[in-house]
Amino acid sequence: MKLTIDDILQKGVSQIIHADHLRKRLESKKPLRVKFGIDPTAPVVHIGHAVPIIKLRQFQELGHHIILLIGDATAQVGDSSDKDSERPMLQRQETRRNAETYVQKFSKILDPEKIEIYYNSAGLDKLNFCDVGELAKHFSVAEMLDRDNFSKRYKAGMRISLQEFLYPLMQGYDSVALRADVEIGGTDQYFNLLAGRTLQEAFGQEKQDIITMNLIAGTDGKKMSKTQGNFIAVDAPANDMFVKIMEITDDLIPVYAEHCTLLPMEATGEYRARLDAGEHPRTLKLQLAREIVTLYHDAESAESAREYFERVVAGGALPSANEIQTITLEHDAYPIIQLLKAVGFAATTGEARDAVKGGGIRIDGTVEDHLDAVVALSSETPVLIQMGKKKFVSVICG
Fold first, then answer.
1. What global pTM score does this model have?
2. Long-range contacts for 321-325 (Cβ within 8 Å, ≥24 apart)?
3. What is the pLDDT of residue 154?
4. What is the CATH number of the domain that holds 259?
């Protein structure tokens, strides 16, 4: 199915400012400068982060110029758009290290030869205090406090630092520096995206059009979060990615089809139609999982992952040795609770305790339900840790 302008304007889109204007620009076939910025605040990138990257892929396929902005300067300030408190400041070196992994992972979706990589420290580091004051005069305190999360915090008597007010100015100035025609961002970025239009107008530039993308939920239907463990990393092994997609709630099937695949809208709409018609969700998830795994790996890996799911997860068989990840830990013995957290099977002590008490943990095939158990590790013979029917890892010390 051929990609259309409607796919760009509608697939995964929450809002466009202004849709008619952007459609005319797209119909003119003049190459547009399309900006997407991301702050490399952590090395983990999940498929929720990749939703706007898929939108960039659509623009790229239609011949537009893609600018992947790495916010190494803005990340040091921290964007609190979706937070109820200040974000901690990061060091520039840390943001640069994270940025390298971001570019590498997004290259699974975008043609890396046709991307402009822009570190926003290149422009922002040149501004002096007077320059910042010139940017700030285009915004009022009332406008800042009208922003949803600031408004809630202000009414609750929670601290809002002046530094946080600077973030929209920084993101907006990026659009000026890049002379962006279009900027893409999540719905939580709405205020910051508008700041770009405000400053472009102040600098005598044509105002960028804005596309806000829907934020997708994690596998459990709640906000996708590393802390909650409900995310799907874009660099996850094919088997793990497939299994996690099979875990999503049924109502997320059409959502993931629309937001997490390269399929055009006509094809993604079929998922919702089939689900509404009563087709078994498992059948749709199997198809969806193959589509997403193929995007980040390849068709052969997706088929192998499907076979793994049917044999191990659905069928109850143990995976073969080469299908189990081996992790090397520092010590030769670990309390069971600490071990589950160390191998990534539990994000919190409470979650680990619940897994043990529920009888879902096996050590070398034997159920371990004692909370005070200590697991001995060897540097030669791996110990197989199993959580439920889906999670396996071999552990050695070294």
1. 0.84
2. 321/394, 323/239, 323/392, 324/384, 324/392, 324/393, 324/394, 325/237, 325/392, 325/393, 325/394
3. 84
4. 1.10.240.10
